Amino acid sequence: MKRATILIADDEAEIADLIALHLEKEGYHLIKVSDGKEAVRVIQSHPIDLVILDIMMPGLDGYEVTRQIREQHRMPIIFLSAKTSDLDKITGLVMGADDYMTKPFNPMELVARVNAQLRRSMQLNQPALGNTSVLEAGGLIIDPDKRSVVLYGNSIELTPKEFDILYLLASHPKKVFSAENIFRQVWGEDYYEGGNTVMVHIRTLRKKLGEDANKDKWIKTVWGVGYTFNG
């Protein structure tokens, strides 16, 4: 089986070496870079399965690196940053990151999250076995094989997690999912901040679908319970 390749982008050499030490024990192939521009160059020239990304780096910061990655690639991105505010975490997730850890960090927890993200990514990239289908509701078309969304003839660019949430809800119209249930099914793990993470993704998903605070045509909030697809 092919070894997964992980890119570690952090300008603190000691931290990059510590991460590499623990991930090498898991059998991963590692590439380390110390600035944002080099991270983008590596991703453009090497098949990368997952990125561990600092935010404050020379050249390009982690947010801009993520933006450029998401223009062409869907591999998992884990932010590992000394920026600890809720706004920083929300910004990272909205930009397209799949997870966010703060420094100082537990290396074994990071390994666990890397393993979980790679398992999830491998499942999503496996050929369909006939249990997925294109979903249509009004002017909305969701294609799970192409991972594409078209709304009234216009392509909608979603992050991987936004797509997964939309497909989960649309696959079970009228069923109400709690934030915690969505997190477990989309992220594949339990996490004490999962509810806030889901809320942020729902908010940005609604904006991309052209909804405002007073109009929830596609995703309806069931107050005190969760969310449901309203198509």
From TrEMBL:
Q: Which residues carry this modification: 4-aspartylphosphate?
A: D54
Q: Mind telling me which InterPro entries this protein's record contains?
A: CheY-like_superfamily, OmpR/PhoB-type_DNA-bd, Sig_transdc_resp-reg_receiver, WalR-like, WH-like_DNA-bd_sf
Q: Which residues bind DNA?
A: 132-231
Concerning Pfam families, the annotation shows: Response_reg, Trans_reg_C
Which residues does the UniProt record annotate as the domain Response regulatory?
5-118
OmpR/PhoB-type domain residues: 132-231
Q: Does the keyword Transmembrane helix apply?
A: no
SMART domains, sorted: REC, Trans_reg_C
Top-rank lineage group of the source organism: Bacteria
Q: Which UniProt keywords apply?
A: DNA-binding, Phosphoprotein, Transcription, Transcription regulation, Two-component regulatory system
List the protein's name: Response regulator transcription factor
